[in-house]
Design a protein that fits this description.
By secondary structure, the chain is of the alpha+beta class. The protein has helices spanning 17-26, 36-43; strands spanning 2-6, 11-15, 47-50, 57-64, 71-79, 87-95, 102-106. It is 17% helix and 42% strand. The chain has a seven-stranded mixed beta sheet. A hairpin with a 6-residue loop joins β4 and β5 (71-79). The radius of gyration is 13 Å and the shape is globular.
Length: 108
């Protein structure tokens, strides 16, 4: 398991081995090549969106010039109910543009 500080939420986000396997299988262009970009996406996001279908889900995005000639790294995080206070990565992928979710925060 890997842990990432997430200043935007004021928490630590976990990447379980099971979720890492999911990303490896479903988004093989992302892991393991761009693993280090996960931390930078949390540390310095360009946008944070919320999925209107799943209110406890945040999509963190950061633009990287060195990812496939210029792309966003998008990391989807779920917050478990307050009694558990656990934040975990559901998936991560590379995208040309962001269309999913409602903008919660955007860099000026």
């Amino acid at each position: 398991m890997a842990m990432f500080p997430c200043p935007s939420l004021g928490v630590t986000v976990e990447l379980t081995d099971e979720r890492r396997q999911h990303i490896l299988l479903q988004h093989p262009d992302f892991l393991p090549t761009y693993f280090m970009q996960l931390a930078e996406t949390f540390a310095d996001p360009d946008k944070v969106r919320r999925d209107p279908r799943f209110p406890a889900t945040h999509l963190f995005a950061h633009w990287f010039e060195n990812v496939k000639g210029g792309k966003f790294v998008v990391v989807t995080v779920v917050a478990d109910p307050p009694s558990q206070e656990r934040h975990w990565i559901v998936t991560a992928y590379i995208a040309r543009k962001l269309v999913q979710g409602v903008v919660e925060w955007k860099r000026n």
